[in-house]
Amino acid sequence: MELSNASQMALQAKERTIASLFTNDDRAKSMSIKAASLFLDYSKQNINDDELATLFSWAKEQKLTENITRMFAGEKINNTENRAVLHTVLRAPNSVKQTILKTEADEVIETEKRVEQIVNNIRSGKSVSAAGKRFTDVLVIGIGGSFYGVKVALSALNPFCSPSLSVHVLANIDGGAVHEKLAKLSVDTTLVIVISKTFTTQETMLNAQAVKQWMRSNANNELIDFSELMQLQWYAVSTNITKATEFGLSATNVLPMWDWVGGRFSLWSAVGLPLALAIGNNEFSQLKNGAYEMDQHFLTSQFEQNMPVIMALVGLWNRNVLGHSSLAILPYDHGMRALPGYLQQTDMESNGKSVNKQGDHLSCATAPIVFGQEGTNSQHAFMQLMHQSNEIIPTDFIVALQGSSDLKEHHKVLVANCFAQSEALMKGKTLLQAQQELIEQNFDKEDAEQLAPHKVMKGNTPSNMLLLDKVTPYSFGALLALYEHKIAVQGFLWNINSFDQWGVELGKQLGQQILAVIDGGEDVSLSSSTTALISQFKSANFCK
Ligand SMILES: O=P(O)(O)OC[C@H]1O[C@H](O)[C@H](O)[C@@H](O)[C@@H]1O
């Protein structure tokens, strides 16, 4: 990021307090914005109007509008994989699909209809298992982008999920996870959906094999033909029909994916099938409608009134001008507890890069370290560091005005805590205030002076406050699209490719190499540390 006067602006910003920027009541009003049922207050950021204006004009100079337009139009902006980035088209009306995708639109529309039909058939009991029973459970197998979207939406939209069809997600390659899931399930009432764009991902394939084996061993083999069971009880979402059919899936049960939909942006495709099964077709459409409205807001609004652009620029300001390396995501919402994990992938896998699109080394920092947890749990854990360490950690607070349960008192306390934390992070507590407080609590002057430094809170921590009226499929769809676009804008401005993820490859490759050594091979290229660890593992497992 090359802002000509960045260091001077940083100096100025670091010398002031955020609270001092509130010179009149207008700040909260002018630094807040509504879009697609969401409300963003960014007035507690350490930025003033002039600095924001500088960022807006800088973004214009960097051809941000052109980049956004190119993405929506389907240009191959993922240059290292020569792919378009068109998850937005999946939530657009059919006429837009036809304009952008041309002949491919037919397959996309047809797939949407297939999803709806499967959802209707399963939820109505028209489609039953090989044992003739109604499905009570869906087991989803997938990882990374083929997991986080489904997981976060299932949890956030839990009040909308059918009580008679439970959806479970299996991602990690850990026998413990497999046993934990399968212990709750019965072969006769479980539908399986394997989600894997490539259908080669090691974790997903091994988990799918284990589940298939479990079904084979536990089905009533005298009465049930296993290939019929696969036909009735297994679906997949993948670009790789060949691999899926080799695995044993019927080709008609493999719903397509397209190379122009990145895994971490794929919830809007047939990858959303498990979610649609849980919440129903109408609610799944609402999720897409909310995202579409955010897309339209993003595409058509001036930068000064554009929620994703504002969030992106404020994020760049924090990261590159003020030098803050992290971003805390704090949803004050039990349903949204999976959001920090989801955004870790969306943000860090997209923008965790250090070369630009041309392959030249970048001199500036890119994606922040994203972490978080649901409030108020985070207040009783890492927020101590946010209040009193030397680290300044910009924060996104997310909360719904109306709670999803009937426990109104709980919601009042939850919201009060959320607002209180944003205020406390901004204002902090000075030494003088701490001393004063202690004296008011009847400490004598000397004790008050000794204790006071321990009670100082640095304050000046910038935060966004994102409000949803209520967590609904519509507002949650808008929220996910908001973050998708914020991250894309940051990638455009850093001139990086946010849509590839080569960084995961080396670990996968070495994983295969190490597996070969565990299985008896030799590899002199491994470090002595790793070689010794492998020996330890082998003696614990194979030398008893
Ligand atoms: O959908 P799959 O092909 O199984 O890939 C699953 C995941 O694999 C890797 O971890 C990639 O980094 C992710 O972006 C991808 O979503």
Automatic annotation (TrEMBL):
**UniProt EC number:** 5.3.1.9
The GO annotation for biological process reads: gluconeogenesis; glucose 6-phosphate metabolic process; glycolytic process
UniProt cross-references to InterPro entries, sorted A to Z: G6P_Isomerase, G6P_Isomerase_C, Phosphoglucose_isomerase_CS, SIS_dom_sf, SIS_PGI_1, SIS_PGI_2
This chain's function reads: Catalyzes the reversible isomerization of glucose-6-phosphate to fructose-6-phosphate.
Could you tell me the superkingdom of the organism this chain comes from? Bacteria
| Compartments where located | Cytoplasm
Q: Which PROSITE patterns match?
A: P_GLUCOSE_ISOMERASE_1 (PS00765), P_GLUCOSE_ISOMERASE_2 (PS00174), P_GLUCOSE_ISOMERASE_3 (PS51463)
The kind of enzyme this is, by top-level EC class, is isomerase
Q: Which reaction does it catalyse?
A: alpha-D-glucose 6-phosphate = beta-D-fructose 6-phosphate
Listed pathway(s): Carbohydrate biosynthesis; gluconeogenesis; Carbohydrate degradation; glycolysis; D-glyceraldehyde 3-phosphate and glycerone phosphate from D-glucose: step 2/4
One GO term in the molecular function aspect is: monosaccharide binding
Q: Which family does it belong to?
A: Belongs to the GPI family.
Keyword Cytoplasm (UniProt): yes
Catalytic residues as annotated in Swiss-Prot or TrEMBL: 349 (proton donor), 380, 508
**Any one annotated GO CC term:** cytosol
Record's keyword terms, sorted = Cytoplasm, Gluconeogenesis, Glycolysis, Isomerase
- What is the protein's name according to its record? Glucose-6-phosphate isomerase
